[in-house]
Design brief:
Blueprint: E1 6-10, E2 18-21, H1 27-30, H2 41-47, E3 51-54, E4 59-63, E5 72-76, E6 87-88, E7 95-99, E8 102-106, E9 110-115, E10 125-127, E11 130-132, E12 142-147, E13 154-156, E14 161-169, H3 172-175, H4 187-208, H5 218-221
Antiparallel strand pairs: 1-8, 2-3, 3-14, 4-5, 4-13, 6-7, 7-12, 9-11, 9-14, 10-12
């Protein structure tokens, strides 16, 4: 697969903003019993699949439940300074808008999936998502969140992740040819699946009886049910940091 460039051109003040590879860690996962949430490899993979943009300011946002452009109130916990106008509620409808200080460009055929940080639920507000054709558009985009309860303040910390960027090949969704098939048509897969179901049922029964957990961790390790190692298995991503162009 060809390498994809991701370039961020500064178009307004970047004071306080941050952009960095996403962390596999989440506070709620740290607090799970024995940190069991980290046993779910798909969760931790999704957590780190992209770059996160962090808020330059601490603030609280609230919504009166109406649709007018003045229905959202943003209360800053410090002076906006150079960041004035970069965080607002000017769309109304409960939407809080982050005007990112960069114009992003990607290689031909690639765009950006713009969303909230993966597996990071925030009470009272939800991140909206968009796919942007950054391979040609000379336009900036905003990151938007929608408040879900009227009359309640939602707080964002300075340095909190407010946006996640994932470059995607724009032709992939339409190139997929989905179909249904009977499991009977794939005997090896059927056998492996049956072995997995048997072990999972035994583990759940043990837990319900107050016994020990015996998770096989085959998926985490990248092993098939018979112990065969899957050579193309991945346990994470190693994303590059944004670097400065030569001479800057």
């Amino acid at each position: 697969m060809h390498a994809c460039e991701l370039v961020a051109y500064g178009v307004s003040s970047t004071r306080g903003w941050g952009i960095e590879p996403a962390s596999p860690r989440r506070e709620w996962m740290d607090q799970s019993t024995d940190k069991f949430a980290y046993r779910c490899l798909p969760l931790t993979m999704a957590n780190q699949a992209g770059w996160v943009v962090t808020s330059p300011l601490a603030f609280a946002a609230s919504w009166n439940g109406k649709n007018e452009t003045n229905s959202v109130t943003v209360r800053f916990l410090e002076d906006e300074g150079e960041n004035k106008g970069q965080i607002s509620g000017h769309f109304g409808h409960g939407v809080v808008t982050f005007t990112l200080p960069w114009l992003f460009r990607t290689s031909p055929g690639y765009g950006l999936w713009v969303r909230g940080p993966s597996n990071a639920p925030k009470d009272g507000i939800t991140a909206l998502e968009g796919v942007v054709e950054t391979d040609w558009a000379p336009y900036t985009f905003t990151m938007n969140w929608r408040l879900t309860r009227r009359g309640s303040e939602v707080f964002f910390r300075k340095g909190e992740a407010i946006c996640m960027l994932l470059p995607v090949a724009l032709n992939v969704p339409e190139a997929i040819r989905p179909r249904f098939e009977s499991l009977e048509s794939n005997p090896v897969l059927k056998q492996d699946y049956a072995a997995f179901i048997e072990r999972r049922a035994a583990n759940i029964a043990s837990l319900k009886a107050g016994g020990p957990s015996a998770w096989s961790m085959d998926y985490m390790r990248g092993h098939l049910p018979d112990g065969t190692e899957v050579t193309q298995h991945r346990r994470g991503f190693k994303l590059a940091e944004f670097s400065l162009a030569e001479g800057e």
